[in-house]
Design goal:
Blueprint: H1 7-13, E1 15-17, H2 26-33, E2 38-41, H3 49-62, E3 67-70, H4 91-97, H5 100-116, E4 121-122, H6 147-163, E5 169-173, H7 194-199, H8 202-210, E6 215-218, H9 236-246, E7 252-254, H10 261-279, E8 284-286, H11 293-308, H12 314-338, H13 352-361, E9 363-367, E10 380-384, H14 401-407, E11 412-416, H15 424-430, E12 436-440, H16 447-459, E13 464-467, E14 478-481, H17 487-498
Parallel strand pairs: 1-8, 2-3, 3-4, 5-6, 6-7, 10-11, 10-12, 12-13, 13-14
Antiparallel strand pairs: 9-14
Length: about 500
């Protein structure tokens, strides 16, 4: 018979709930005393470096080995810099440069900032191979579409982050790149045979494991070659048979947010949680959307009930809780050994190496004769804003107009969505007798955006087009690719357009 009194503590140990607020709520502090193994921070929890440090100190006062996780990809998906945009360029830009030493340096720099703020687990790097350019959720979050390139940069990112004392987390296993569906809303299908999966999707995960990655995040993906019935998060064939046994991975397995519709729609919060643990997951990420104590209670009680009813083996729950505690012990030990430490008032400014990387990534992918670059006078900028996927915070700014105005005072801007195109003629009129810069994200995925650009370029073939997504469609008299829409990417594009002198990239020390 299970130890009935211990079950709630074991169940709490495997949870990584989110919460609302910039200080630790009473219920979270109480739960830490009752065995809660970790928490997940999101943009709503981040106000400043000093505030995050104070928050994590609150958490650690209740449980010194608590895992404090954050979803900080250092690209378009940023939580630590969500209010200003990331000062690092993101994975696709790093892949475009293809200098693993630089990727490792960027990740180490990020890890230092995270460790100084008291964060111990980062849900990064995104290890997916973005082989489907129409992918609505991965895109610039991946290092690229070539599996070998993604593998070497995933390994480099893992090494850099963990050198700084922060556990890395390769995601979304077994690979979310070849999908046309967002798993936040439904279950994507990866319809490849085992040989294809081995050659593409699994290659970067093998590289991350070889680099010593401490955590792997599951994807809510249906991969019939491995399991024709259950999404990977809930599949014992995928998590235990493939990841644990075939790939010989012995670290923490954490789920993608369990409230995502890819698993919740069919099984509910509790049902998906229990099935994930039974399949081999060790930690349950919950609370990205449902960030309250009641959600945590529902999930915890479902685990306890499943053990008591024989649906989930107590030994499996104990094994999962032990792996959580081991990761907590590792982060404490390695941060002490590497000299990483939580600072009471960490100074986390813009990343120097991040801005250098963004400048190295930006490319002029087309330049027609007769179109001047750099510009000689302040332009008018029209930024076309497609709907963002749910992983990218709506609060995070992006674009080229603001940094360009800093460099070329007098620059003016308009921003248009699909519903605002009635304002396009007025925006064009404001560009009369002035240079015109058009800014977009993922033109190839948005028919309205491609049509709007075509309409503008017929009238202004001299316009500069800045693509801040995946540069599939090349348009304009000048086409600039930034490979991401972070603050650093926008700054790099603005410097190129303005002709601002920047230092030549220096080799990074080994």
């Amino acid at each position: 018979m299970p130890n009935q009194g211990e079950l709630p503590e074991l169940a709490a140990a495997v949870l990584q709930p989110g919460f609302v607020g910039t200080t630790a709520p009473d219920w979270v502090r109480r739960w830490l005393g009752d065995g809660l193994g970790g928490v997940a921070l999101f943009a709503r929890n981040v106000e400043s470096p000093a505030q995050v440090a104070a928050l994590t100190a609150q958490l650690r006062a209740e449980r010194p080995d608590v895992i404090v996780a954050i979803d900080e990809e250092a690209g378009d998906v940023t939580r630590l810099e969500s209010r200003h945009g990331s000062s690092r360029p993101g994975n696709l830009a790093l892949g475009a440069i293809d200098d693993p030493q630089l990727t490792e340096a960027v990740a180490r720099d990020l890890g230092t900032d995270l460790a100084n703020a008291g964060i111990t687990l980062n849900y990064a790097p995104d290890t997916d191979v973005n082989s489907n350019p129409d992918n609505p959720i991965i895109g610039v979050r991946a290092f690229g579409a070539d599996a070998q390139l993604v593998a070497r940069h995933s390994a480099a990112f893992v090494r850099g982050l963990q050198d700084a004392g922060v556990a890395a987390c390769a995601k979304h296993f077994p690979g979310h790149g070849d999908t046309a569906v967002d798993s936040h809303h439904d279950v994507p299908l990866i319809d490849r045979d085992r040989a294809q999966l081995e050659a593409v999707e699994l290659l970067p995960f093998r590289a991350a494991i070889a680099a010593g990655v401490r955590a792997v995040m599951t994807g809510h993906l249906l991969v019939p070659a491995f399991d024709p019935e259950l999404p990977a998060t809930l599949s014992r064939r995928v998590l235990t048979g493939l990841l644990r046994e075939e790939l010989a991975y012995d670290g923490l397995i954490v789920t993608d947010a369990i409230e995502m519709q890819g698993v919740r729609r069919t099984y509910g919060l509790g049902g998906a949680t229990v099935r994930a643990l039974a399949a081999g997951a060790d930690a349950i990420c919950v609370g990205g959307e449902h960030a309250d104590e009641q959600t945590a209670i529902v999930v915890r009680d479902a685990i306890v009930r499943a053990v008591r009813d024989g649906e989930l083996a107590e030994d499996r729950l104990r094994d999962a809780a032990a792996r959580v505690r081991r990761l907590g012990e590792w982060t404490t030990r390695v941060q002490t050994a590497t000299g990483a430490r939580q600072l009471a008032d960490p100074v986390i400014g813009p990343s120097k190496v991040g801005f250098e990387a963004a400048r190295r990534a930006v490319r002029v992918t087309r330049h027609d004769a007769g179109v001047a670059l750099p510009l000689a006078q302040p332009p008018h900028v029209i930024e076309f804003a497609p709907a963002r996927n749910i992983a990218i915070g709506a609060e995070t700014p992006w674009g080229v107009g603001a940094p360009l105005d800093d460099l070329m005072p007098g620059t003016t801007s308009d921003r248009l969505t699909a519903d605002d195109l009635g304002g396009l003629p007025a925006a064009l009129a404001r560009a009369a007798n002035r240079p015109l810069v058009l800014v977009a994200r993922d033109v190839h995925r948005h028919a309205w955006l491609a049509e709007a650009l075509d309409r503008v370029l017929r009238a202004r073939p001299d316009a500069i087009v800045v693509e801040m997504g995946v540069p599939v469609t090349v348009l304009g008299g000048v086409h600039i690719a930034t490979f991401g829409a972070t603050r650093a990417c926008g700054q790099a594009a603005a410097e190129l357009i303005a002709g601002t002198s920047v230092p030549a990239p220096q080799p990074l020390a080994a």
